[in-house]
Write a structure and sequence with these properties.
Layout (H helix, E strand, L loop, with lengths): L16 H5 L11 H21 L2 E4 L7 H11 L1 E5 L9 E7 L15 E5 L5 E5 L3 E5 L8 H25 L3 E4 L5 H12 L11 H4 L1 E4 L8 H19 L13 H32 L9 E4 L3 H20 L11
Antiparallel strand pairs: 1-9, 2-3, 2-6, 3-4, 4-5, 7-8
Helix pairs in contact: 2-4, 4-7, 7-8
């Protein structure tokens, strides 16, 4: 939450330099660990932000508001505002907000702001209060969830790197020794082996000139354990966003176990919903603009696809019963 300063700009999107260059095979950047690590972090962090921004659906949000910018502000700053300038009634905007500080009249006895400023990305601003809008908290802690997302994304990248290192230790290197004057022959033999050739043609001194042995690193393969850890960290990320997902577990679960493990995630989802709905309730009760079409927030789900699939299945069933393959019975829907 910002106090007494200008707005903080969350990223609007776009590609980093690493993404523009790309991890093209056999280029300098492909083998650049720093570029790979940066892209792995951006990839996972981008997925987490995408999920965070699509969790809530604002119903009857004024067309002059921007749902994406509203949720982006809540994600990064933990607070936003829906307000209209006093000079332009019903010109509702979903913007960042900065609370006034240094005066006792800026907050009520419960710490709720009385006066604040609404800021847009382009620098536009206007004074706001409960007379022309309302502030919205992302959660009851009144803190942004983005720092937790960043920490978990770093954990996921670390696990990815560990899995790569562990896989690398399973590739047992072969050490080939021989006389220095035979360097060219040794190099050619390695190329033939790497190329998968069935036969390597050499003279009688081949076995005497070269000796090969395997360097055993004695590092056990931890793929299954690391993958379980990776999935469980993802589950912690889902839980932070209120998205239902069970921890990775090999054996089957009973129904009570599934429900009990989903309870914390459901509470996180309700935490964000309750704060957003509290703002909707205030706007619906105090401003005529929202009387006809009350503002509301719901947990997002793809109902359009479900409705389409249902109508398609029913149409197909009616055509099958009709037996002529036309859409006569479909008109009854």
């Amino acid at each position: 939450m910002s106090k007494g300063s200008g707005p903080i700009k969350p990223p609007l999107g776009g590609l980093t330099d690493e993404f523009r260059r790309g991890l093209k095979w056999n280029t300098n950047y492909y083998w650049d660990s720093a570029s790979y690590n940066a892209q792995a972090y951006d990839m996972i962090r981008g997925e987490a932000i995408s999920m965070a921004l699509t969790r809530y659906h604002w119903v009857n949000l004024p067309p002059t508001c921007d749902e994406r910018f509203l949720e982006l502000t809540l994600l990064y700053q933990g607070v936003a505002t829906i307000a209209t300038p006093l000079t332009k009634p019903d010109d509702w905007r979903s913007l960042q907000c900065v609370f006034q500080s240094g005066t006792r009249t800026a907050y009520d006895m419960y710490g709720n702001p009385i006066l604040w400023k609404a800021f847009g990305w382009n620098g536009a601003e206007f004074a706001a209060s409960k007379a022309n809008g309302i502030f919205i908290w992302d959660n009851k802690r009144r803190m942004p969830v983005m720092p937790r997302i960043d920490i978990l994304c770093r954990e996921l990248v670390d696990i990815l790197k560990t899995m790569q290192q562990n896989r690398g230790h399973q590739k047992l290197p072969v050490i080939i020794t021989g006389p220095q004057e035979k360097d060219f022959d040794r190099t050619q033999m390695v190329k033939q082996i790497e190329g998968g050739e069935l036969f390597i043609i050499g003279n009688d001194s081949l076995n005497k000139s070269f000796q090969a042995e395997t360097l055993d690193t004695q590092v056990p393969y931890l793929g299954n354990e690391l993958w379980a850890t990776y999935m469980n960290v993802w589950n912690s990320l889902y839980e932070a966003l209120g998205i239902r997902n069970l921890p990775f577990k090999a054996e089957r679960r009973i129904e009570d176990e599934v429900e009990s493990q989903s309870d914390p995630t459901n509470l996180i989802a309700l935490d964000g919903l309750s704060e957003r709905r509290a703002a909707c309730k205030y706007l619906n009760e105090n401003f005529a603009y929202f009387k006809e079409k009350p503002l509301d927030v719901v947990w997002r789900s793809d109902t359009e696809t479900a409705n389409y699939d249902l109508a398609h299945d029913v149409t197909k069933l009616l055509n099958t019963v009709d037996g002529d393959g036309d859409d006569t019975n479909a008109d009854r829907l």
